[in-house]
Specification:
This protein has helices at residues 3-12, 14-42, 109-114, 121-149, 167-170, 190-200, 265-274, 331-358, 369-382, 384-402, 410-423, 429-459, and strands at 47-62, 68-82, 96-98, 104-106, 152-154, 161-163, 178-182, 185-186, 205-211, 214-220, 223-228, 234-239, 242-243, 248-250, 254-257, 260-261, 280-286, 289-295, 315-317, 325-327. The protein is α+β, with helices and mostly antiparallel strands. It folds into two domains: 12-146 and 368-459, no CATH class; 161-325, Roll (Pdz3 Domain), CATH 2.30.42. The chain contains twelve helices and 20 strands. The longest helix has 31 residues, at 429-459.
Length: 460
């Protein structure tokens, strides 16, 4: 999709795209800043301001404790300003306060006891850590609720078919192979396979396969390919060449069966019906290309063949298992599954980031607000469940990014607190000031790069 098509679609659905983006971002920012706020209050720190957005105040009020709660003009973030800090990023502090008449004076002892910079190291670290931590907790709560109410969607980690000439085909994978583990990581669903291949790129992986009653070890190197979503945003993944149980094929697309051309859908249907419960190859049309598959469809899953009103509507199920199931969860098992999913997402994000750092993965895969807005709008149109799943993923990513040891981010503050604990004294304030300035420039540059990259990918 080019930029004109995207702008047209957004223009036609402005309330969905714009509304979904602002609502999702505002909720996640509120959750993050609320984590800082509530732990600060628990530690006896006065909070001057709680802002959703930046810039001029649009609406606000003062609560009983004197905190100013406000919505600001630019809804692309937020902050909590703690008493004693000279700016919302806690990049500096001052023991002076300004009276109502505008006069500057030193803090009283009672005021110093409410200031953030006077608190013990562990309390300051707790306040800073609370923001990213609450993002993770929020994601776990969202996923737990979905798994309890809706069930967790599970697609079996079974190869329904093998793409011809793919890495899986070359390394001996067979239809109905069950992937048990990849590099000793347990695989529970086909989504786990996709996620592992996404970060594997073209690096060799060790697969443990269950084939019938036997376990087989396969060392395979996926093929690195560039994919493009419907908006035109590109990313790199590792393509192994397995087809999931969720995918079936239309008989009308089959052009060859075991290398022999079929001249009509009726002929293809006949050839396939005669080969049910055996392993054979087919060629099928896929857009302008032809794709070869090794399949082994079972008769019990294809008893519907020949019953459609038209052969054009006949679909062949490739797997010996249902396409997708929803596993029911109790609250406790849902919490466990949500924590595991959060861990896997974080690990994948860390691996992808490291690949960018060492140059294995291109930094052009970084996305900005344009990409996030497009995806949020897309999920909103698909329904509430996909939107909640996206919110959980973004909440995990927000917590993960803020824990990176970059000055201006929470992780940068925690890094300075670590050195303070080791050295027994705070890092010199002048050094911190220079570091925060460098961190600010780096983050602004990174955001500019990500958003310009979005525009570039839409324009080319």
């Amino acid at each position: 999709m080019d930029i004109l098509s995207l702008l047209q679609e957004i223009g036609q659905n402005i309330w969905i795209y714009g509304g979904a983006f602002i609502i999702v971002l505002s909720i996640l920012v509120f959750v993050h800043e609320w984590g800082h706020y509530i732990v600060a209050r628990m530690c006896g720190v006065h909070v001057n301001m709680f802002s959703i957005g930046f810039g001029r105040e649009v609406w606000g009020f003062n609560d009983k404790s004197g905190t100013r709660w406000k919505l600001s003009l630019i809804p692309l973030g937020g902050y909590v300003q703690l008493f004693g800090d000279t700016d919302p990023a806690s990049a500096g502090h001052s023991d002076s306060v300004e009276d109502e008449d505008g006069e500057t004076r030193e803090m009283t002892q009672a005021e110093k006891e409410m200031a953030f910079f006077t608190k013990p190291l562990w309390q300051r670290a707790a306040v800073v850590f609370a923001g990213p931590a609450i993002n993770y907790i929020f994601a776990i709560i969202l996923l737990t609720g979905l798994y309890v109410v809706h069930g967790k969607p599970v697609s079996s980690p079974t190869a329904a078919a093998i793409i011809g000439e793919s890495s899986a085909d070359k390394h001996g994978f067979m239809p109905h192979d069950i992937i048990v583990s990849i590099d000793s990581k347990r695989i529970d669903s086909f989504g786990d396979i996709r996620r592992e291949m996404m970060v594997a790129l073209d690096e060799e992986r060790h697969f443990v396969i269950k084939r019938g009653n036997e376990f087989v070890d396969i060392h395979a190197r996926p093929e690195r390919v560039a994919i493009e979503d419907r908006f035109g945003f590109k990313s790199s993944i590792g393509l192994l060449g397995l087809i999931s149980a969720e995918q079936g094929i239309l008989i009308s697309r089959v052009t060859h069966v075991n290398g022999v051309a079929v001249d009509s859908p009726e002929a293809a249907l006949m050839e396939i019906e005669n080969r049910l419960d055996t392993t054979f190859m087919i060629s099928m049309k896929r857009g302008d290309d032809t794709q070869n598959l090794t399949i082994s469809p079972v008769s019990s899953m294809n008893q519907h063949l020949g019953t459609a009103a038209s052969v054009e509507e006949e679909a062949l199920y490739l797997s010996n298992l249902p396409a997708k199931t929803y596993s029911a969860h109790t609250v406790m098992t849902a919490i466990q599954a949500a924590i595991n999913e959060t861990y896997v997402m974080t690990r994948s994000s860390l691996e992808a980031l490291w690949q960018m750092v060492i140059g294995v993965r291109s930094a052009t895969e970084l996305g900005g607000i344009i990409r996030i807005g497009a995806i949020a709008g897309d999920m909103a149109q698909q329904g509430l469940v996909p939107l909640i799943l996206l919110m959980a993923l973004l909440s995990i990513n927000l917590g993960f990014i803020n824990l990176l040891p970059i000055p201006m981010l929470d992780g940068g503050h925690l890094l300075f607190y670590f050195f303070e604990a080791v050295l027994g004294k705070p890092v010199p304030e002048q050094f911190q000031e220079y570091a925060f300035r460098a961190g600010f420039v780096f983050l602004i540059g990174l955001m500019a790069f990500a958003n310009l990259n979005d525009l570039y990918q839409l324009l080319i």
